[in-house]
Amino acid sequence: MAEAHQAVAFQFTVSPDGIDLHLCHEALRQVYLSGLHSWKKRFVRFKNGVMTGVYPGSPAGFMVVVVSYMSYNKYKQLDPSLGLFAKLGQHIPISRYMSSDSQRIVGGVLVGTSLWITIIMIMRNVLKSLLSWHGWMQERHGTVSWSSRLWLLLVRLFSGRKPMLYSFQNSLPRLPVPSVKDTCKRYLESVRPLMDDEQYDRMKGLAKDFEKNLGPRVQWYLKLKSWWASNYVSDWWEEYIYLRGRAPIMVNSNYYAMDFLYVFPTSIQAARAGNTIHAIMLYRRKLDRAQIKPVPLCSAQWERMFNTTRIPGVETDTLQHMNESKHIAVYHKGRFFKVWMFYDGRLLLPREIEQQMERILADQSEPLPGEERLAALTAGDRTPWAKARETFFSRGKNKQSLDAIEKAAFFVTLDDSEQLYDKDNPVQSLDSFAKSLLHGKCYDRWFDKSFNMILFKNGTMGLNAEHSWADAPIVGHLWEVCQSVNVFHLGYTEDGHCCGKPHPNLPGPMRLQWDIPAECQEVIQSSLTVARALADDVDCHSFPFTQFGKGLIKKCRTSPDAFIQIALQLAHYRDKGKFCLTYEASMTRLFREGRTETVRSCTTESCDFVRSMIRDETREERLRLLKVAAEKHQNMYRLAMTGGGIDRHLFCMYVVSKYLGEDSPFLKEVLSEPWRLSTSQTPMQQLELFDLVRHPEYASSGGGFGPVADDGYGVSYIIVGENLINFHISSKFSSPETDSHRFGANIRQAMLDILGLFQLDNKAK
């Protein structure tokens, strides 16, 4: 074990002849290599900070500007300081002791540097102005106007040659604050189809009163914050929506990502873990070096992907982020292990990581008292966990072991169950897969970690992510790269093992030690009871929709997202016989530190279309209403992405009203309305890593999340290639109004019914 090797690194004995030192040269070598690795990372961080700070300029550009400026002045016989040194010489004594040549060189460097900084600031402000223009989003699908082409050309020109991950941060515009009048107007428009005349008139009166009285006051504070802070929403959103929540984060907040649908690279659990963990660590290395290829979107959420844990508090949680972590934490059959990711000053190779996982799988030791279900504390209510952490894990071996988990790069579970998509039993197999990733046994995932990598006994895998530090597209980016590197770059041997050879001298994993008293075990059992009740109530249904995909939807000249969202409205009406407030997540990363905004997908236009499908309307009329509803949805999505959404504005006005001690009936009612249909599109192919045309078998299953309302549905969908859409549906068994499988059947039928309106077969003929 590693601790045994460390124990003999340094020994000494005292004798009459003096002190006899015994040094382990191998241990000292490892100390030296570890220190060298740390200093290299510090240098890389410093260099990246400089490169990002001067972007879109560069140190090379500095040399070009200064040398060119000095050469020009030397050729023209001009004073490069433009008389600056002559004026400063009266006040700076040191200039009197410098020769004219020295003054000429220093003056040239100073003026050249000023010129370089001026050029950088001009380029940065031009780029910020370019990124503030969102006219390209108004383009019709499949067409690009000359203005958008010119805009794209200018963005590339002012973006520099090799932007790094965080290069665009200082050039991104700030999220604008919508006017109170516009927000109230658009809110009333969004709830009109959900209210009768009496309810609507009442809400209209509340909105008018707010707009006239309290609204301007809270708006003033938001304007002030938007000028002062990088983003007027994100910090309050993270704190009040995520970190202050006292309910379990398992199911309620955390979400999951699933493995490939049809491809199983290896059936050896340790081998899949070896390649996967190595691929993730390679991703972290690129992230530390800011070498992930950026797009002109905010990259701030990447900063806390690794070495991050949500720390429970009595009233509010906090996010603990370490600059560096050289180990991961692994759970298997009730035991926790600390596994170092570096040896000999380098990252462990896939076969070496597989070797470590094999040692854990072969370990026959029993869990210590209370250890097996310890992680249930992270699955239950937050306040009991916070109190238990302070009482039982603040000293001794418990603190050391907890630190090993919380300061790990990420958490790995070697699950002892088998999960995969079974074509002979597709419904039950995928539903079981989804539930295992969403909550597992409630004690075999550390839900507080930024993400858990879950490796199943038969070699399949998945991921469970904590939500407060970032949104799904960030984790999705990691997941795509991880899967691609795992299969296409690292590969496996013919017998399913990682390529390479085991290391003959690699120290083994370190078993974490615990001393969990009976009082703490009672808290663990109480948290587990709460978590199991929540998990057992989740009705998950995942299915691949294979009848058609975005390829046919595009032939209908309709946005795929709008098509699916309208189909969800039709399916929900057929499922429950009524419309409901619908949440669709969109991103606001076009702005600095932007996260998400809500698209209220249930509109008057979509309701009109749904009613036309229920009533006996002509096909032409239904198509007309569908087109109107799709255009409305697209416009709302564009507004949400470009800072014109209403829900984050309403939320922030509510927060300010609470700080002011004001009670707003309008805001209170708005913020208490339940989202009975919560939807999200999982981003697919953010990177061109998979050729799904030639290799459709590498289709991703996507991921999902738990229901937001007790009597509602959570729906996640991923548009895979041209011919596949995967759906993930969740609800609660305890609600008599919901049934995930019934809703799934309604979604299938709604998708087919809407496509049938276009009569594509007839057009083809």
UniProtKB/TrEMBL annotation:
One CC-aspect GO term: mitochondrial outer membrane
Alphabetical list of Gene3D superfamilies matching this protein: 6.10.250.1760, Chloramphenicol acetyltransferase-like domain, Choline/Carnitine o-acyltransferase, domain 2
Domain Carnitine O-palmitoyltransferase N-terminal, first and last residues per copy: 1-47
Its EC number(s): 2.3.1.21
Recorded metabolic or biological pathway in which this protein acts: Lipid metabolism; fatty acid beta-oxidation
Membrane topology label: Multi-pass membrane protein
Residue ranges of every copy of the Choline/carnitine acyltransferase domain listed in the record: 175-749
Catalytic residues (UniProt): H467 (proton acceptor)
Descriptive protein name: carnitine O-palmitoyltransferase
